[in-house]
Amino acid sequence: MARLVTKFKYLKPNRKQRAGGYAKYIATREGAEKIDESFRFAPATVNQVKLIQRLVKDFPDTKEMHEYKDYLAKPNAGNATDFISRAIEDNIGAAAGRKTYADYIATRPRAERMGSHGLFTDDGVEVKLGAVSEELNRYNGNVWTVILSLRREDAERLGFGEGKRWRELLRSETPEIAENFKIPMENLQWYAAFHNESHHPHVHLIVYSKLENEGYLTEKGVQNLRSVFARDIFAQDLVSVYEKQTQHRDDLKKESGERLAEIAARINEKGFDDTVLEEKLVRLAGKLSKTKGKKVYGYLKEDVKALVRSVVDDIGKDERIAELYDLWYERREEVIRTYTETLPPRVPLSENVEFKSVRNAVICAAMDIVRGTMPDAEQLNEEIQAAEPADKEVEKKYLPNFKTTWQLYFWAKDMLDYENDGYSPHKAAWLLEACAKRGNTVAKYRLGKMYLKGDEIEKDIAVALQWLSQAAEDGNEFAEYLLGKTYLKGEDVELDTAKAETYLRRAAGRGNKHAAYTLGKALLDGDVLKQDISAAIRYLKQAADAGFKPAQYVLGKMYYKGEGAEQDLKKALEYLAKAADEYPNAAYLAGKICLTDEEKDIEKALRYFQIAAAGGNDYAEYQLGRLYFFGKDVPRDEETGLSYLKASAAHGNEYAEKLLESIRENRNCFAAVAAARLFQSVLRLFINWPEDESRSRLDRTDKKLRRKIDEKKQAQGLKQE
């Protein structure tokens, strides 16, 4: 596939011009560039090789140029010259400033001219090169430069071998340029010049706003513009690709809808062979039955949306659907390769906005489970509530009204709703038992959980284990998790590590994040199960990757402290950051990592400490107080620093208390700072003493002196690590 090579840079205002070797080369390049054609195929000269190495080092993005690829394939003098010329040309703005850049692209040899120069802009606007150059020279805002390049054979084939087509392209996409540079159309200013190079014709584009403080370009904006330009340039090549992509998308939507309708029908009739997917759809149906308003994905609560996405991803594992999704992505990536070699990661089917209709198909399938055959709700509810569940005649009379087990199940759930006037856990248990006896695995789990907890009905461990075991045999991951946790704790049942581990492993193997975390934590602690660090980390990662915050926090602490795993601050920060919004301690540790030399980022450190402090973490308050009061790495702000220290002290932090006391005693705060730092430095001498000499020398150290240092350190509120 042909490819458009693009380059986006901006020229900062008031920058020092870097004339150096580049500017000199630019000034004399035409003469230097001219070599006898007979020598084009000779090996590149030593000077050319050295200059290429320098250019690639100083301007890494030149590696993406067509000319560089040609040089690597054939490192001869001709290809070396072509690359050097383009590399310097593309970076002339960095070398010699804006005015030079505008003058150069407009007047250089092989610039396609319209009069005395080759600069052009919107149709009907006359371009005066001198005025443009002087305007750019005085302009104090950011100026962006864009370069679009094609191979000669592609340019000729697609009709972009002349400046006219490039002018038409840029003028037609002016609204896109304005939108992605975040510049209002009325303030957008751009100029361009077409260079008809022999091998790689290209266009230079200068973009800025008439208002100096306006406009910015994000990475997303860059990608959007690359896509827009490539779409227009390669339109005729991509027609068949788009057609195939559309066909794959339509086929996938149709296949997903049919598959979901089939699953819903089988669940309503006699049950479905995939118990995990069945359970998710049933849970979704239960949530939707209580959802007011539109039953459309965009209107649902986040927990319901998450369940919908989970079902979509399960459907995506279907062999035919997975195949169609792969084919659709292959066509999409074929398009992306027209403007970049770096492909973005594929997203799951549930997250792909192109397939939003699949989400709503899942919602329809869930609703079909309980729609259409439900008996008269109001009448049946009154009759059942008035009846005595233990009466066999009642069972004989009313249960046949329920044509599917799911109707029984949802009726029972209604009776377990506290807000429902018909709340009756005992009658709900009766309906659930009838449902469970008909083979409904979700009812078995729910019934077993009720008897195990004893919150809604009288606790009965034997009955609970009976139903939970049956649900587990059906492959119910929640029943397996509950059984595993119960046997692990040894509450209400005799501790059984073998059963606990078996059930938890089975549930984790089905993707249950709670089971994965519980098992991982047990294997890590080694108190009940035999310690197995590698297995513990594997299960904890499974739970963490599934978004389970406790697992993310535990892993973060492990990598931070180097306990159970080799210390890795990068990994620690990754996990702690994910857990920071729910775990103040995680936010605090993340902030501490951001203060280390390895992961130094003061802004992030402050943000994490503030999150932790908002959650009541007194150590985070202490750290913020020290940072602001002493002005280390942040602008000094005594008032803010003292407020954090006082809050920390109020929460019982002894280091904050000592530091506040020291500040009050020392009128000269800077003396307190100096003293604190002095004691820190002395302490480091002891900590960093050579290993082979430390014991003997420390033994000889005056114990009284060391004690005084420790006392002073504590008095300054310096936490000992």
Describe how the helices and strands are arranged.
Layout: E1 5-11, H1 20-33, H2 46-58, H3 66-73, H4 77-90, H5 92-96, H6 98-107, H7 129-138, E2 143-149, H8 152-158, H9 163-172, H10 174-180, E3 188-195, E4 202-209, H11 219-233, H12 235-269, H13 275-289, H14 302-315, H15 319-336, H16 356-370, H17 377-386, H18 392-398, H19 405-415, H20 425-437, H21 441-453, H22 461-473, H23 477-489, H24 497-509, H25 513-525, H26 533-545, H27 549-561, H28 569-579, H29 584-593, H30 602-614, H31 618-630, H32 638-650, H33 654-665, H34 669-687, H35 691-700, H36 703-715
Antiparallel strand pairs: 1-2, 2-4, 3-4
Helix pairs in contact: 1-4, 2-4, 3-4, 6-7, 10-11, 12-15, 12-16, 13-14, 13-16, 14-16, 19-20, 20-21, 21-22, 22-23, 23-24, 24-25, 25-26, 26-27, 27-28, 28-29, 29-30, 30-31, 31-32, 32-33, 34-36
Per DSSP E runs of 2 or more residues, the count of β-strands stands at 4
Structural class: mainly alpha
Spans of at least 5 consecutive residues whose pLDDT stays below 50 are 14-36, 685-701
Put simply, the count of helices is: 36
Q: Please state the overall shape, judged from the principal axes of the Cα atoms.
A: globular
Largest sheet: 4 strands, antiparallel
Report the end-to-end length measured between terminal Cα atoms.
58 Å
How many structural units, i.e. domains?
4
Q: What share of residues are in beta strands?
A: under 5%
Name the strands of the widest sheet in spatial order: 1-2-4-3
The residue-averaged pLDDT reads 78
Radius of gyration: 35 Å
Fraction of residues in H or I helices: 55-70%
